[in-house]
Design a protein that fits this description.
mainly alpha, rod-shaped
Length: 120
Amino acid sequence: MVQTPAAAAAAAEAAAAAEAAAAVVSSHPTAKQIDRHHNSSNSQHQQHQQQQHQQQQQHQQQQQHQQHQQQQQHQQQQQHQQQQQHQQQQQHQQQQHQQHHQQHHQQHQQQHQQQHQQQH
């Protein structure tokens, strides 16, 4: 799972605070220190869960968004290629048709010239 820099920093701070709280507990604490540690560790635990939840949501949204964009781009490229191929085929057919027409016209002219020369 990809962590954002802000989330990673917050997780590091939470870990450091937990270590500091554990150090307080290891030395003989008073009842007030125990209560304070219990409250702070609960709030840290809640913050940590919220951070993980936010990271997962952001990660999923980014993946879905990227996939959606890739699919759209892929479809657009395919459509563009198909249109180009279609236009090229049409141009090719038109050229063949024009060549055929020109050949027919040239043959007709040659026949006409030959007949004219023979008659002459």
